[in-house]
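Our preliminary data section would be incomplete without showing what the modeling component actually yields. Below, a chain of 123 amino acids is followed by its predicted structure, encoded as tokens that our downstream tools consume directly.
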Amino acid sequence: MAAILQSLLVIVLLSLIGQGMCQNCSTGDLLIQQNQTGTNVQSKPEFKVTVLNECPCLQANVKLGCDGFQTVEPIDPLALAKSGNGCLLINGSSMGPFSQVSFTYAWDTQFPFTPISSDINCN
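Predicted structure:
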């Protein structure tokens, strides 16, 4: 009986710790890295963008600020699609904890993507 109670206590404590970590998640946990690929598309350098979810929870409906974004290279709309004054990442699907999404674009200069919103789900 004592072993069962002890096990239940451990489960409750781990659950509370996990929820506490997720309550601190925000769009600030979306790390955006960009690098030139070394390829040129229509005489413009190509950039690879990687968005990493550093939160231990799911982040869905990730929207990046992309007002003024341009590219001569088509981007798969399932990876990044214009949505109002922002861009929706992976069609609004959830990014798992510590997962990443990448896409490429080509333009004269690197574009300063910034995370502007997401829905955080810790369940």
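Residues 24 and 102 are 25 Å apart (CA to CA). Confidence is low (pLDDT under 50) at residues 7-21. Preliminary results of this kind motivate Aim 1 of the renewal.
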